[in-house]
Design goal:
The chain has one domain (about 15-70). It has helices at about 15-25, 65-70, and strands at about 40-45, 50-55. With about 70 residues, it is of the alpha+beta class.
């Protein structure tokens, strides 16, 4: 586990392993990198990436997908 308040790299040679994993599973439109802050990922309880959201996506706009995921058995 890592400290959630510690600064980590999301791109480049020192990319933190969690970002390597996220980008490898759900690349962006322009490539496997994070273009801007506030890129969001939704994962299921098994660690599978369900969806990637761009920076302009507001959390409330993710609600439908989150509720659908939480209601799966």
């Amino acid at each position: 586990m890592w400290d959630l308040s510690t600064k980590i790299d999301v791109n480049g040679k020192d990319t933190h392993p969690i970002w390597v994993y996220l980008k490898s599973k759900q690349g962006g439109t322009l490539g496997n990198f994070i273009k801007w802050n506030f890129t969001k990922f939704v994962m299921d309880k098994e660690g599978n990436i369900v969806k990637r959201y761009g920076p302009p996506t507001m959390p409330k706009d993710m609600e439908k997908d989150l509720l659908e995921l939480m209601n799966k058995k």
